[in-house]
Design a protein that fits this description.
This protein is an alpha+beta fold. Among the domains are: 74 residues, no CATH class; 208 residues, no CATH class. It is 49% helix and 10% strand. The chain has 14 helices and 4 strands. Strands 1-2-3-4 form a 4-stranded antiparallel beta sheet. A hairpin with an 8-residue loop joins strand 3 and strand 4. Helix 4 packs across helix 5 and helix 10 crosses helix 11. The two termini are 33 Å apart.
């Protein structure tokens, strides 16, 4: 029986969409879930959608969750798609997390951390047992009274303690090392440019000799044309007109060739890398990697981070500092010339500390992995920090023996919007492709059966 394409139409698609809307609403007798309820009572889901959707807007994230029937990957897709329609009016200044209005701040390496520790809201110390009291309605859980600490007080980073002893890498040192590598690469480039110029000189010399030979050839050709002119003079008038037209046509072709000579384009001014506007290519710098990880899929990053702890990367991390709270977003419009605060956003920041045995250029010290996400998204930020450190293996001269250290593998597979689109496109019609493969397999099977029967006869 031949493979027959399934037939469908516009009405069937419209009915499928209407059925989705009905299923999403659920029982009409039950009150509809409001965006305020989603935003207030499903904050962790809202935070994840904002992080992976790369847009900080709790209201839109709540709408995306409702529209997507609770599918957080689909909700992130909706938010990411909406983000592409927004104009970019300003660039904000870098947020200062040392001025964070802390809701939570812990360190796993120093008990008496400067500024103290604040547990905040966390699942860390509860039993994983179902609380059937939540099944009842009208539950009220008053927040405990604060001890009176000032959440606006500036809190120093834990890593500064290690930096004062010179036991942890500094961003300045990493930057200088990168600049040194850049200068070394520039030296190689200049050396290669010198060789290229030398080769260009030889080429021009050879071209000059060729032009000299071309001049001799043209001189001989001119003498030949002079003799040809004497011969044409003896021909009739029609042949003379024909020769004039040919000369005119040859001049036209010469002009066309001259006008279409290609010129090399001018070099464009380099701009800061932005993964939302430029295609990500590897190898890449750490800033582009962090952008990619910040909106990467939490599950994927968690698996990659877990792999490093199981030995695929040989990193032993410590949670140097985890902080969550509100930070101020500031812009500096050119027309005003001074900074203006436009919003307060909630972020989670993680600094992981890893041991590094050193190499010929760098003494033994601690290295750092960094994670920052929208909202209260601690697990994602921790996983991001672990993967960030794993991706620094090449820069630190470490052996790359784990998938989390493979830059191309991690960065190109962490985006769930792209991943789910490519996987789910398999649901779309592939009738022609399958028909071709079906015919091929039938032909191969027929050849196989014939060869098998031939061997049996022998």
């Amino acid at each position: 029986m031949p493979y027959v394409a399934v037939k469908g139409g516009e009405q069937a698609i419209q009915n499928a969409e209407a059925l989705l809307q009905s299923k999403r609403r659920g029982d009409q007798a039950i009150p509809e879930l409001s965006l305020t309820q989603i935003k207030q009572q499903m904050q962790l889901a809202v935070n994840r959608v904002m992080a992976e959707g790369s847009l900080y807007d709790p209201d839109l994230a709540a709408l995306a969750i409702k529209q997507s029937w609770g599918d957080l990957v689909e909700a992130a897709f909706l938010l990411r798609a909406y983000r592409t329609t927004l104009p970019r009016l300003y660039y904000s200044e870098p947020i200062d997390t040392s001025e964070m209005h802390l809701q939570r701040r812990i360190s796993a390496i120093f008990k008496d951390a400067p500024g103290g520790q604040k547990l905040g809201p966390t699942f860390d110390y509860i039993h994983r047992l179902l609380d059937f009291k939540l099944a009842a309605e009208d539950n009220n859980f008053p927040a405990p009274v604060s001890e009176g600490s000032d959440p606006t007080e500036s809190t120093p980073y834990i890593a500064k303690i290690l930096q004062e002893e010179g036991l942890v890498e500094k961003a300045e040192g990493r930057r200088q090392k990168a600049e040194g590598q850049g200068q070394k690469a520039e030296g190689k480039r200049q050396k290669a440019e010198g060789k290229r110029q030398k080769a260009e000189g030889k080429r021009q010399k050879a071209e000059g000799q060729g032009q000299k030979a071309e001049g001799k050839r043209q001189k001989a050709e001119g003498q030949g044309q002079k003799a040809e002119g004497k011969r044409q003079k003896a021909e009739d008038a029609s042949m003379q007109n024909s020769n004039q037209n040919f000369s005119s046509g040859d001049a036209s072709r010469t002009n066309f060739k001259t006008q279409n000579t290609l010129t090399s384009p001018e070099s464009q001014t380099s701009t800061p890398f932005d993964i939302t506007r430029q295609s990500l290519t590897t190898p890449t710098e750490r800033d582009a990697r962090l952008q990619n990880l910040a909106r990467g899929d939490e599950g994927f990053l968690l698996a990659m981070a877990y792999s490093t702890q199981r030995g695929y990367g040989r990193n032993h991390p410590f949670a140097g500092e985890i902080r969550m709270g509100d930070v101020e977003v500031v812009i500096c419009p050119e027309e005003l010339g001074f900074e203006v605060a436009i919003a307060d956003i909630t972020v989670t920041e993680v600094q992981m500390v890893n041991q590094f045995k050193g190499n010929k250029e760098t003494p033994p010290q601690f290295t750092q992995g960094y994670g920052l996400t929208f909202g209260y998204n601690e697990r994602k930020a921790m996983a991001m920090a672990l993967v960030d450190r794993a991706l620094q293996a090449k820069d630190l001269g470490e052996v790359i023996d784990g998938p989390a250290q493979d830059e191309e593998f991690v960065l190109y597979h962490s985006d769930n919007v792209e991943a789910q689109g490519f996987v789910q496109h398999l649901k779309l019609p592939h009738y022609i492709d399958f028909q071709a493969e079906l015919n091929l397999v039938r032909k191969l099977r027929q050849d196989y059966d014939q060869s098998d029967s031939t061997i049996g006869e022998l």
